[in-house]
Description:
CATH architecture of the largest domain: 3-Layer(aba) Sandwich
Protein name: Glycosyltransferase
Keywords: Glycosyltransferase, Transferase
Number of strands: 13
Radius of gyration: 22 Å
Bound molecules: uridine-5'-diphosphate
Pfam family, one: UDPGT
Strand content: 5-15%
GO molecular function, one term: UDP-glycosyltransferase activity
Strand order of the largest sheet: 3-2-1-4-5-6-7
Distance between the termini: 14 Å
Order of helices and strands: EHEHEHHEHEHHEHEHEHEHEHEHEHEHHH
InterPro entries: UDP_glucos_trans, UDP_glycos_trans_CS
CATH topology of the largest domain: Rossmann fold
CATH superfamily of the largest domain: Glycogen Phosphorylase B
Amino acid sequence: MHVAVLPSPGMGHLIPLFELAKRLAVFNHEIHVSFLVINTDEDNPPARDQYLYSTALPPGLGIVNIPPINVSDVVRDDMLLVTRISVMAEEGFKSLKSVLIELGKPEALVIDLFCTGAFKICSELSIPVYSFCTPSAAFLTFSLYLPTLDREVEGEFIDLPEPISIPGCSPIRPDDLMDPARDRKNEQYKWIFLHISRLPLAAGILVNTWEDLELVPLKAIREHSFFLQLPTPPVYPVGPLIKQDELLSSSDEECLTWLDNKPADSVLFIALGSGGTLTTGQLLEIAWGLEMSQQKFIWVLRKPDDADASSTFFNVGSDVNDPKSYLPKGFLEKTRGVGMVVNSWATQVAILRHPSTGGFLSHCGWNSTVESITHGVPIIAWPLYAEQKMNAAMLTEDIGVAVKPMKGPGETVVRREEISRVVRLLMESEEGEIIRSRVKKLRDSARRAVDIGGSSYNSLSCLVEKWKNEGSKP
Ligand code: UDP
């Protein structure tokens, strides 16, 4: 049996789909998996090649590069994230049909949420398509409900006076809405709406989550399966799917050796996903807040950007520069021995896995969230872009594994005193201990979910059985 997997550009999309591809190849040795990579001149992060090519692949998995394309004529500087990803993916699809034919027409194609242009191509080739939702099941419920909201609400969703109620789910405050739904006139709303409207064409929807983590939204999807005009395809929670082995760089080795000499749960890790950058003013406050807190830390640092909070999304790892040029004067000297700074990119999972890591200041991208929970590390929620505010609300209010620092009234940045307060709360208070014990319970549930007979294991088995049965039909 042959299955192909197609992520859209961006590390947060590529990583969970590649992990799915690896798990499928290991899960059932009768499956051959082709992992298709879209290559454009606008999306070429060094971090991607390090991740894809630095370790041996399991037998049965092959990486297939879709012929490189030049997108500089179609991508404009003013395009927001979802538009950019979608336009790049559409260009990549120009050769998708011939690639799939050359591969001998796989029995199924698993696509990322933003790759829905593949539905038409695959229907011409009679290949069933499965969607993979890289964000949470809660995001999926909101997405499935979006066409209803779109019909019923006039004007902007962010101007609604009340939280948005979705059948069977926690209400969403308009302030926490995902970026693409914050401006219905922007092109990225039209793109996300288009992708979501095509979801019923999928033969199934895989989600990087597990039953014990997102019982409520998963139940809501099953019980209210007519969110769209058409029935929702079967949903398969198959997570957590997180990075396993990766070749460590010399700075990763340095971090891990440094962590080896620290007490358990004593170091705060700070990283903002593949795209996240801070404003100049906010970076200064975080630096001095960390220094005030007197807690140990590892900080993945990037040059600040005052205009775009996701400015390294397509080129992460190539923005290496000297942190001294933008850190406050004297910060590195004052925190010597207490903190470490890493330029642009670190092997996050290796750091989260280390027993000395006891907290994660995170932008709450879904992969980072899942990785943190799976390693039992509580979170300081620092959402920046995409659907991260929704994730932060879920982590702090529904699951109780995170704390969120607040801006003072009328302030444009979170002040150093607040940062220091929250860091100390998480790292050394009784309340922090309670949060830590909650996340450790969820960590155990994550392990159970993927073990033989666990909920995500069973979900993946069902899917593989379905593929086998469909593949054996004449
Ligand atoms: N990541 C990493 N090192 C870094 C920053 C990010 O390994 O310095 C990985 C992280 O482990 C996660 C992915 O990049 O797997 C980021 O995905 P997420 O959904 O958290 O955020 P996005 O980048 O999509 O905003």
